[in-house]
Amino acid sequence: MNTGKWIRFACILGLWLFLVYLLWTRAEHNFMMVFTIVASAIIVFVPLYKKYIRK
Fold it and tell me: What pLDDT, in 10s, does the model give residues 36-51?
């Protein structure tokens, strides 16, 4: 991966972490919140992994 791809990956990761932080601090902690975080991680990072890392 070249530098541009790493920067894009880092920006998406940072945005996802920020949104997870907002969800974690403002919502009540239960199974649905944890499920939402895990599902969003799968939806966001599996396609990025397939596109940029696994070749």
Answer: 999 999 999 998 888 8
Q: Which residues contact 9 (CB under 8 A, 6 or more apart)?
A: 1, 48, 52
What is the DSSP code string of the chain? --HHHHHHHHHHHHHHHHHHHHHHHHS--SHHHHHHHHHHHHHHHHHHIIIII--
Size of the chain, expressed as the number of residues it contains:
55
What's the mean per-residue pLDDT of the chain? Answer: 89
Q: Using an 8 Å Cβ cutoff, are 55 and 3 in contact?
A: no
CA distance 38 to 41: 5
d(CA 32, CA 53): 30
